[in-house]
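Entry type: protein chain
Record version: 2
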Amino acid sequence: MIEILLCAFFFTVLGAAYVKGYDVVKAHSPEHLAHFYLIMAAARMLLSGTAVAIYVLLVAQSREDAIRFALTFIIMYVVMMVVTLTLRH
């Protein structure tokens, strides 16, 4: 259960960083929004992949537990993307 709460917090922070960063880039340099989006997408993918890898390698007790966590993480990632894109586009 603690894993789910930490994942929710992780994606809340990533989503908030995207929304705030989008506002800053749009206000100061709107022609760079595409660059900002690509940089944030790369950062989100790297951070998410690292979080899943750390959980699978250090915390997971079984293969089923690792698969369940990875699926939960993917679902939360998709929800975060839908919410942040809906808020800013």
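Comment: The mean pLDDT is 89.
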